[in-house]
Amino acid sequence: MNRNFAPIPALVFIVSALLGLAGCGDDPAPPIAGSPPNPGSAPGGGVEPIKPPPKPSSPPHQLAPGDPEDYKVDFEVLDQPIAPGDTLHAKITNSGDSTLTYGVCPQIQTEDGQPLIAEPTACIEIAAITGPGESGSVDATVPEDAAPGTYLLVHQVNAEDGTPIDLRAEFEIGD
After folding, report:
1. pTM of the entire predicted model
2. Residue 105 and residue 88: Cα distance in Å, rounded?
3. Which side of the chain, N or C, has fewer Cβ within a 10 Å radius?
4. Is the pLDDT of residue 123 over 50?
5. Cβ–Cβ contacts within 10 Å for residue 83, how many?
């Protein structure tokens, strides 16, 4: 027999653990006299449903669009004119003090602001980050049936304070 093993304390520990587990059931413990009721418990021992938080009295505040000049953000389409079916490349230059976040889905519009592609496409809203003094880029594919003319590439970036900044760059689609 191994004399380093103490059977009585080990047995007491195991029995205590088993009794402790046996006491764990679905029924809540009875309330202690004079104590407040358990939160979430209803009279009669049932569970009270959780109530949703109250709705705000007004819609959340949305920031007005910021001016690209105030935030020192430049937006330009590179390598013009663009041919129908080609991919255009645009550069976002952040000369300001705020980090910019943005998706990678700029929109091509006609000069009067109508989208060139009517069907919306899926877009990852926060896919790129451009810090102060850095440049980033976005690409867009010109539809095969686009007529020659002047168009706008429109894109929104967000300053680190959440202010949306609408960017517009004019470009030409050639023959």
Report:
1. 0.61
2. 12
3. N
4. yes
5. 13
